[in-house]
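Entry type: protein chain
Record version: 2
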Amino acid sequence: MNNDYSTSRLTLKKISETDAYFILELVNSAGWIEFIGDRHVHSVEDAVAYIKKIKENKNINNWTVSLKDQQTPIGIISFIKREYLDHHDIGFAFLPQFSKKGYAFEAANAVLQDALNNPLHTEVLASTLPHNKNSISLLLKLGFVFIKEMELGNEKLFLFSIRKNG
């Protein structure tokens, strides 16, 4: 996976401690809390520690997505090898004021296409809560197909998949 990506409107850079203020805002947004969960990040110091923990885990790749013209951080894309899944899982989260503008599709598609062009990734998965209609809609737009409902702990998740062409 690349360290950086660029699209017509966005730049994606590997997450770093300099993203702490942005991460503090993102992980405490209503959508993050509802669909991803409380990460107990309540200060800039907590955000720095959270970012360091992510960076130390070799199974996690996170990119901060920024508007190209202003370098304003607006979201993140994740690519994670989870123990309970056979393939990497792609995820996304954006600040609410930047939703419904095509940014999540643009950023996720850049990472997804790179992954699917990599011989190591014949399939990419994505999971979401059944009531997260915006994520489901984006996954379908990206070309994912629903494969099953699964339980993780006492939470139900919808699992989606996209396979390499050919």
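Comment: The first helix runs from residue 20 to 27.
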